[in-house]
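Usage example:
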Amino acid sequence: MDLLRRLLLGLTLSIAVLCAEGGAAGAEGRMTREYDMKAIFLFQFADFVNWPASTCPDTLTPITIGVLGNDPFGAGLDEVVAGETVGARKLVVRRFRTVEQVDSCHVLFICASEAGRLEHIHAKLMGRSVLTVGETKDFAARYGIVGFDVQRNRLKLRINVAAADSAKLTISSKLLRQAELVASKG
Amino acid sequence: MRTPRTTIRRKLILAIMLTSTTALALAGTALTIHEVTSLRALLARELATRAAILAANSTAALAFQNPEDASQVLAGLRTDPSIVAAALYDARGGVFATYPMGASAPLVPAAAGAMGNRLERASLLVSRPVMEGNRRLGSLFLRSDLRALDERVRAQVMAILVAVLGSMGVALALSAWLQGGIAQPVRILAETAKAVLDRKDYSVRARAVSDDELGVLAEGFNDMLAEIQRRDAELEQRVADRTAALEASNKELEAFSYSVSHDLRAPLRAIDGFSKALLEDCGDKLDQVGTKHLDRVRTATRQMGQLIDDLLNLARISRAELRRERFDLGAVGKEIAAELKRAQPEREGVQFVIAEGMTVVADTQLLRVVLDNLLRNAWKFTAKHPTARIELGQHRDNGHRVFFVTDDGAGFDMAHANLLFAPFQRLHRQSDFEGTGVGLATVQRIIHRHGGQLWADGAVERGASFSFTLSEVKS
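Running the assembly step on the lines above writes:
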């Protein structure tokens, strides 16, 4: 039963992917949907991660979602975050060109454009309580805490708990249940 | 003494059982209602708790679009068979995960509905939002089968029923045991009263078995019996004393009257003898007036002689021993009738009717005195009528033989009937009818000595009827 259901699901998705790859417009649409999903995820992290009190001097300090590099979200991320709060805190989106610009930030999405500077960024943010999120392969294991991984049209999570610990971040076990846990490499 | 229709024992048991059963039934009903309500409330609370835990555990799965994890969370419901279906809906209301996997309408709604609890036939439906912090991520739906609740209610009611029945059994046993303390002494008392009444035995005593009011009652009852017994003995003693005294004085009186009567005879004989001698020897010297006076003296003397004879008779009759033998009362009556006719042959108008077959067992001499008196009375009191009918007969009344002497003579006034049998009491003047007034008293004494009764009926100038019975003695 379970096997049959998976086969059917797989078949349906394959057809969907084939249709989607049928043209450039289709490809663009698919990309947009993928980043909409990623934007939602970035926003949801705020509910399942606890930052140390030092990063939030008072209860009204907004939670900052930063985007480092070439922003792939367009207006999508701003739309997701608009008007939302976590407790009394507002959510704000800030965009950074370089890692040196990153001052106050809770969640930092490192765009694909920064793939060559990951080592540097990792070093720069070492010891700071920033939930780094990347979308390159092995990001969680080597350069940050959370990695996005698109598998079969679905967005998967990889989390490096040791990295989160050294950043003094507490990730809810409920969130960890949704992710593949990875250990640090090199 | 009548036997009671119901017993105190039964009444007591009934009262105790009625009270305890009512109390138990009310308590049982209240308990059942309470159980059902609290079970429903408990189920609702349990469901709410379960839904809250499920919702809390499903937030991340909804937030990070992980239906597999959501299905796993819902699969945890397997441990509770009363929850038959569940579903998670995403923020837009679409089905996100179901339990059991692949469940669809009508088991779970195709889209999230209104929040809250809802009863649907045998199911309790719970819908609640899934929140992380103050953000709503979706909603949860649970369907609980109330049949499981009914099962629990039935089990509870059964338990209560068993408890009530058990309590009734215990109450019955207890009441049977407790009623003994009241019913037993009462029963003993009632039995004692019945024994006293049935056997007229006042020496019976009630057994004292309790030290409460019933004990006091039994004691009082016993005291009353003792008092009755004491009085009985006293009365008997008094009667015996009085009887003895009476008998003694009676004997004295009889002896006195006998000797007086006897001693009166000698002077009377002298008066009679000398007045007779005076008439015979000196009759020629007396004029007509003197002779007439002497005749009056002799008549009075004769009367007095008769009176003395009657009195002696009466005394003799009282003392003489009864010598019962079988004889025909009619034969004796006929002899007396013949005697009367011989003495006054001029009364041809008197007709005697004497029945046949009046055989009795009695003292012949005394019964002759009875008939002589009654027939002589009838003869005497019909003297002023030219014709008369005198009857001696018998009839049966209530199985007893009643003998009677009836005439159609002067009769008497029933108002004075009570004086008839008293000695020296007469209803007629001596000038009208001669007599001493001792006759009927004698008759009554003889009849009483035979254990019989004597009574009279009559009316003035309509005749008189004397009836008597004799105690039947088998010879």
